[in-house]
Amino acid sequence: MVFIIHSCKKEKPSNKTPIVTDSQMVNLARQWYDAKYPGVNNGKLTTHSTETGAQDWTKAFSPYWAKSNTFVIDSLNFIELPALKRGDMAMSTKSGLNPKSFNFSKSGSLTSLIIVNKNGAFYLYAMTILADSAYLKGDYGKVKRNTYRNRDADFTGEVFYNRMDGSLVNGWKYTNGLITGAISPAAPGSTSGQVTQSINKQHVDVAQETDCSTTITTTYWESCDYYVDDEFYENPFNCSYYTTSSSVTTCTTITSGGGSSAPSPCTMPTGGTTNPSNVSVENTKTIIDVAQPPPGGGSTGGIIDQTNKIGTAGACQTITNNITDPCLKAQVNAAISDGLDSYTSNVANFVFKNNTDFDLTFSQSTTLANNEDGATNCQGDPASQNLFEADVSLNANTMPKASQEFIAATVIHEILHAYMTFSGKLGEFNQHTDMANNYIFTMQKDLKAMFPAMTDEDAEALSWGGLGDTQAWADLLKNNPTLANSIVNINNQYKNATGTKGHRCS
Amino acid sequence: MRQVQRAIDVHNKIVKLLLFIGLLMVFNSASAQIDDFEFQRSFVKIFKYPDSLRNRCIPTYTNILIEVSAKGAVQNISVSDSAPKDFKNSFNKIRKSIDLRLLDSIITSKKLNNKIIIPVFYLFTPENCNNAVASPGELADNYYVFNGQKLEGSSFCLKPIIIVMYKTLH
Predict the structure, then answer these.
(1) Is A192 within the bounds of a domain?
(2) pLDDT tens-digit map of A256-313
(3) CA distance, residue B102 to nearest chain A CA (Å)
(4) Parallel, antiparallel, or unpaired: how do β-strands B115-124 and B156-157 relate?
(5) Going by fewer Cβ within 10 Å, which terminus of chain A is more open, N or C?
(6) What is the DSSP letter of A356?
(7) Cα distance from A198 to chain B (closest Cα, Å)?
(8) Which of A398, A211, A356 is nearest to A287 (CA)?
């Protein structure tokens, strides 16, 4: 008997985002905001609010809590809120304009606030969407169609994410709804108009080149006073005007095949990755505006904050399902589903998916023996356990004929192997012993979470799969042979193509 | 007599291997501890150790050589001839996908304009394989040879990439 796995007496990972309602999340965020930025969110300033540079954006923006919109991406809770502005603000690629005569209503710039909750901690960002005139076509309200998660199909322009100290986190350039460039802070000393390239002749035999151009983005500010009862800043007075500016670098990667894309968000170009003094600039290639959005968290052109590890998990695809058999693939996806209340799913999502240093890959194999339902190969850096990778293979010859329940049990077994190896418990026998002694109930529970109609008896039987080499199984055979035989029979009924238990894809 | 000679040969090979590994450890500890973790991560993500080596318990002790121009641009990347043939083949397949931009900040900050060496060790855990090398002498001879050319001149050493491979689990 060579099947599957299991359960655990270990504590569940404690870093799972607590399950709270949307309104609770907003309330928690508001409590955090009020404590973090006391006195700046009451909207009742009676004194002039300008400061030179105005790089404390919390004094310019405050969240419009009543219009919050919550959603989850890569297990992180997001709250998107309109920004209440004390005056006005707009980004522009045009510099040198008189800020006092700047027409904010026709700027094509819209700033919202994004609050991210990660493991209970909150992070606040400003998202500024700067639409191109070719997209707006004179309809300046059109920019409001774009949100954090959704861009208009024909959106052309840029999206910037800033921290509340005004520093740029990252951004994305769009052309007709597609991401065509990754925006990052420019390296110190970069000059506007500068084009840096990893030109073919410099990166010999490297099949891709990255074109980066540095530009100045100007932010126009209107700062006003308001009466204490003007909660929504509708009646400004004593307004003043000024500008701030920042250098940003926009990079597009062009492959030798002619395609182009934004550089991987796993390795967001920082301004410091190019050396203006060493990289010569010989030509000014036009950035090719044909690209697909990067995968995962970057699919919407979201926040990629390497410091706080926000937006990096999905973007870096730390769980990869390379299985081609649709039935096997579906069961893998089901077992690791983020919304599933199961230990295995938590392990997959909070150990592997949310950490770019630990990868989990699923594939199918035609070289496994018929009595091997799955196999797990792991590797890593022994000193730090960084760079840990686990490859789970499912038997492509036998498993597609098995029931979905049996496949799921196998997937759970293999994920536990990966997690135990990651945790330092080495050796198949040791791990099987741990599974048999401590994880049967957990696997049973996980299977029931996936297949609520499954009986406890069947779920427990499938949980014993693959643990025939353990002392616990030997004891069961000796002390309760009837139960042991029943477990074997149940497994066979779920595994065999002609078995009567479970659901088969074909 | 033949058996005695054979035993001596085996003994000499083991001593040579141990000496070599000892030298590697010295070399490693003396190398610059510049944080090239992002590059390491990028490399490990795209390089898959060949099954042909993994299944036969063949480890790899090699160096990655990155040649940098006088202007600080990466010009070539290769592995030393101590790498098994299948390792080199796998490396060459992903060579063009290696994200060399991740070294730009190091090249810039250290003003590098010659060669970068990154030691690479793919090893097995003890319960898996014994990390034996068929020809330790050949390994030592080729550790600093790249496509038949001995490494000459100064080079900048980065932290080694050390990956251990665990026994396959079922």
Answers:
(1) yes
(2) 444 444 554 444 444 333 332 222 222 222 222 222 333 333 345 788 887 777 875 4
(3) 7
(4) parallel
(5) C
(6) T
(7) 8
(8) A211
On whether the CB atoms of residues B60 and B120 are closer than 8 A, the answer is yes
Q: Which domain holds residue A356?
A: 319-495
State how far residue A250 is from chain B, nearest Cα, in angstroms. Answer: 15
Q: A328 in a domain, yes or no?
A: yes
On whether both A247 and A368 belong to a single domain, the answer is: no
Question: Domain tally for chain A?
Answer: 2
State whether A326 and A249 are in the same domain: no
Q: Do B100 and A206 touch (CB under 8 A)?
A: yes
Answer yes or no: do A282 and A421 share one domain: no
CA distance B37 to B35: 5
Contact: B163, A380; criterion CB under 8 Å = yes
Contacts with B, A 237-266, CB within 8 Å: 256, 263-264, 266
pLDDT for A128-153, tens place per residue?
A: 999 999 999 999 999 999 999 888 88
Is A65 in the same domain as A212?
yes
**Chain B: residue nearest A383 by CA?**
B162
Contacts of B10-16 with C-beta under 8 Å, sequence gap 24+, read B13/B136, B13/B137, B14/B136, B16/B136, B16/B137, B16/B140
pLDDT for A26-50, tens place per residue?
999 999 999 888 865 444 333 333 3
Say which residues have a Cβ less than 8 Å from residue B1's Cβ, sequence separation at least 6: none
The DSSP letter of residue A428 is H
What residues in B contact A381, CB-CB < 8 Å? 161-164
pLDDT at A158 over 90: yes
What 3-state class would DSSP assign to A390? strand
Question: Could you tell me if residue A309 is inside a domain?
Answer: no
Decide if B96 and A375 are in contact by the 8 Å CB cutoff: no
Query: Is A272 part of the contact surface with chain B (CB cutoff 8 Å)?
Result: yes
A188: in domain = yes
Over the stretch B134-165, which tens digit does the pLDDT of each residue have?
Answer: 777 777 889 999 999 999 999 999 999 999 99
ipTM over 0.85: no
Inside any domain, residue B170: no
Whole-Å CA distances, A46 to A37, A42, A50: 17, 11, 12
